[in-house]
Amino acid sequence: MADLLTHVLVAYVLVTVVRWRVGFPRHWVPIAMGGAAMPDLVKVRLVIDESVVQRVLGAPFEYAPISSFGGVVVVAAGITILFDREVWREVYGLLIFGGLTSLVVDGARVFADGTGGFWLYPVWVQPPTPELYVSADPRVLAVVLSTAVVVTGVDCYRR
Fold it and tell me: Whole domain around residue 23: which residue ranges?
């Protein structure tokens, strides 16, 4: 299941391994994990309908672009502003990295028509997908979870 937990764990594994090599502080890892959750903000539509947001903004609105590269860039910028100015570069880079890992994981899913979503928004192109797994397959989460456990063990050992 390429769900929120899978996205967050993939970002955790990748950023933790990169952290071993680069040496940035451990407290930056959750920033990238939060970035991996950004494309899933599109699921807010289950709670707040697009028409409600359109009435509040007074302009056309859709949730779909949030789950794209352009959406990740814009949402990451909005989140980065909430941090101190001295750390904006690090926070923005980690949020973008986490969001891109989420989009890559989603990009490998099986789709009925063989093409992925509009992840390159604002460019409306649907790239082909390698169709590596079905979204409802629990083995994906099991593999990512077991990898995260191993990486956590190695990380604790390295301390």
Answer: 4-158
Total number of domains in the chain: 1
pTM: 0.89
Q: Is 156 exposed, middle or buried (0-12, 13-18, 19+ CB in 10 A)?
A: exposed
The closest of 155, 63, 72, 58 to 120, measured between CA atoms, is 72
Lowest mean pLDDT among 34-38, 40-44, 77-81, 112-116: 112-116
| AA identity, residue 47 | V
More confident residue, 114 or 152: 152
The answer to whether the beta carbons of residues 35 and 105 sit under 8 Å apart is no
Sequence-distant (≥ 6) Cβ neighbours of residue 72 within 8 angstroms? 35, 38, 39, 95, 96, 99, 100, 102, 103
Helices (H), 23-80: 29-37, 50-57, 69-80
